[in-house]
Design brief:
CATH topology of the largest domain: Rossmann fold
Shape: globular
Number of helices: 10
Largest sheet: 5 strands, parallel
CATH superfamily of the largest domain: Response regulator
Strand order of the largest sheet: 2-1-3-4-5
Distance between the termini: 37 Å
Order of helices and strands: EHEHEHEHEHHHHHH
Structural class: alpha/beta
């Protein structure tokens, strides 16, 4: 597995790398120190997972995450940040991140979180979970995180088309359609395609 670790502090990158390799010793790690470097590494290395800091030069916090999600919709992205504000955590998840790793977490907690993420799961720290339990409303899904091609796939879903028909209509492989659907579910915070259609209609999208 190839993993991108992006942070403008070399010591932080090294610490994350050492923690990651304890969990997955065979992982191939590539690094970046700013937004431009992330884009270059994404294009060159095609990582299976990206750990991103919100405060790198050029990142512009959650806006940078949204831009990266549009540019590389097939790459699961995790924010690794020194912030632990539940509102920030929820905003990154609403922007399409599959997880949020506070850098202040104990090493054993980071290892457990990375195991979940490397296995294709998601991770939300206890702070955000506690905030939700105390009645804070979850972030509203935002379709602006979808690429134009993902919007095409979503419209097909809204018409009730199966993957094979979507692939034929859009000139894609079924595997690519599945990747786009996975990204749609993540951005719309939906558990399945039926729920994604309901969310899309609630947002006023048309098939």
């Amino acid at each position: 597995m190839k993993v991108l670790i992006a942070d403008d502090h070399p010591m932080v990158r090294d610490a994350l790398k050492r923690t990651l390799l304890l969990v997955e010793p065979t992982a191939q790690v590539v690094e970046a120190a700013d937004f431009a470097g992330v884009v270059l590494q994404m294009q060159a290395a095609l990582p299976q997972l990206a750990l991103l800091d919100l405060h790198m030069p050029g990142m512009e916090r959650v806006d940078g995450l949204r831009r990266l999600r549009l540019m590389f919709p097939g790459v699961p992205m995790v924010v690794a940040s020194g912030e632990d504000d539940p509102a920030v955590i929820r905003a990154t998840l609403a922007a399409g991140a599959v997880g949020f790793l506070p850098k202040s977490e104990a090493p054993e907690v980071l290892q457990q979180a990375l195991r979940l993420l490397l296995g294709g799961g998601t991770y939300m720290p206890a702070q955000a979970l506690a905030d939700l339990r105390h009645g804070a409303p979850p972030p509203r899904p935002d379709a602006s995180g979808l690429t134009p091609r993902q919007m095409d796939v979503l419209r097909c879903l809204m018409r009730g088309q199966p993957n094979k028909l979507i692939a034929r209509e859009l000139g894609l492989t079924e595997g690519t359609v599945k990747i786009h659907i996975a990204a749609i579910l993540r951005v719309l915070q939906a558990r399945n395609r039926t729920e994604a259609v309901v969310v899309a209609r609630d947002l006023g999208l048309q098939a």
